[in-house]
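Observation: inputs received (chain + adenosine monophosphate).
Thought: call the complex predictor directly.
Action: predict_structure
Action Input:
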Amino acid sequence: MLRVYNTLSRRLEHFEPFSPGYVRMYVCGPTVYDYSHVGHARTYVAFDVIKRYLRLRGYNVFHVQNITDIDDKIINRAAKEGVSWREIADTYTKDYLDALFKLRINVDLHPRVSEHINEIIEFIQLLIDKGHAYVAPSGSVYFDVDSYDDYGRLSNRKDKETWMQESEFAREKRHPYDFALWKAAKPGEPWWESPWGRGRPGWHIECSVMSSKYFGERFEIHGGGSDLIFPHHENERAQSEAALGVKPWVKYWMHTGMLNVGGEKMSKSLGNIVPLKDLFKEWDPLVIRLWLATVHYRSILVFSEDVLRQARANLERLVNAVSVVKQVLREAEPTFRLSDEGLKALEELNRLRSEFYDAMDDDFNTSRAFSAVYKTTSLVFKYLEPRGEYTIALKALNLFREFNAVLGVLDEHLEGAYAQLGVESVLQILIDVRNLLRKSKEYSIADEIRNRLLELGIQLLDEGDKTRWVLKK
Ligand code: AMP
Ligand code: ZN
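Observation:
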């Protein structure tokens, strides 16, 4: 039974989607005003791993991750560099997508704010109509926090004083903790027409609008870094439950622990970022992926070369173990008889498989799950390599395939193994059929098989009552 930690209840809960077998997951993506950094990768890899595990468990997962391409930071950077906001957004969107590709993260949909202005306006109008938002004299629209009675529960901030800590200053608000849904245009800024005059969306509204557009009124998982719990997710929750009239709007709120440098969050505004594009020059993106995939998603991380060196060693060990497995499959006789030790090894592999699933079922505990992966590699080196048992190799290969469905760092190595396994099995069938034909003296058909294989460069060698094949050089 899968259990996940829900930030809202601050407890582990049994995972039960609204509709059986179907999971909608929305993750807050980047504000594209600078290069993606290791802190971003921490969160994106974590949710990719969560999604992959849910898929391995048989769920249909639809993963949406938004791109914030309208924001103060983008506008400021564009003004500083004397280019349009779109140019800035496009440059860093490309950098972000490139990083995801290299890290083997496959998001189903990447909606952009600038492409959803009409839907945003409609959503804000709904909030105004329902009495949850008001238009200020400037033409900005604010959410009336007092109109929603559950505000502060997600971030566990009960009193109004704490709501004010991160609020934007604006004299025209009814309460200092109300937040902007729509910002009236200031000179030189991008704007769109709206019923309240020219302006642009505030930050929080986009996620409520885009998730409801693609998922409907409620969905299963809402994710992001824990830096977003307040105010971003608190505000999203308030405006969505108020507008859509559903509770809960989101079934599981999931947040990653921050990647820190010297005790502070890695972030552009603190000037301590390590851009992924630079890191990829020195480190295989799959090393970075393996590191991030094998630490628990809620733990706080510290970036260092040491952790990357360790991940590189782990990756090498995994690749070597798979190559031992492939070698055994190539060289051992394909028999399913097992020695007593073989039987024990098989049982151990089954146990390690359960260990992996149990750990992942426990709130996606990838660090414990990886210890089962590591033990599997040990068995490969200690038992399989010297003994070369075909059945154990086949079992290990299947296990690595399951592990890799989550880890995503062994694709090439495993694909090769399956192609090889497929070709070899088919060849063996042809060899067996040819030998049967020879036994019943159907020599011309038997020769046809041999000659056609030879045309492909595969030579059959008859040795006594056995037939081997070799690749003809
Ligand atoms: P941003 O571009 O800052 O809005 O961040 C995009 C996503 O990356 C959000 O889900 C953030 O919570 C996450 N994120 C940003 N910085 C970090 C960090 N240092 N550690 C973990 N996640 C981060
Ligand atoms: Zn969001």
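Thought: report the result.
Final Answer: The chain has three domains: 3-116+204-303, 309-415, 420-473. Residues 287 and 313 are 9 Å apart (CA to CA).
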